[in-house]
Amino acid sequence: MDRPSLVERRRKQYKDYIVAVSAGEVVGYCWYVNDSSFTNDVSDIDSEVVALYVKPELKRHGVGGKMLSYAIDDLKKQDRKRMIIWCLKENTPSRMFYESMGGTIVGEHKIHIGNQDYDEVGFLYTL
Hints:
There is one protein chain. This protein is an alpha+beta fold. The chain is about 20% helix and about 45% strand. It has helices spanning about 65-75, 90-100; strands spanning about 5-10, 15-20, 25-35, 45-55, 80-90, 105-115, 115-125. It has a seven-stranded mixed β-sheet, covered by helices on one side. Strand 4, helix 1 and strand 5 form a beta-alpha-beta unit. It is globular, with a radius of gyration of 14 Å. The N and C termini lie far apart (about 35 Å). The model has no long low-confidence stretch (mean pLDDT about 90).
């Protein structure tokens, strides 16, 4: 598989997002917003990564880090100061990734998906 590259895309309705592409195939995406519309329970947040996904076979190959770094740099250019990412509390690999990228846990809440409740932890990034 070719080395993934980042391709920026923008859509007003869904704010900003980028995709990682390898050999013409989308292998990851990152959706981020320059406001706090998704997080009401942590104060002083002005931006958020709403979703970050990398195909399982490409995890631990730098794709997620490149996308997250791109989002952080773009939000800095938009004069954002404090960004949050929510992660399932039980998702140890993702939690380790967010910590390795400089995030610190600042909150916890429950979300309802399907017929189950899950705990999420929020990672704060000072931009």
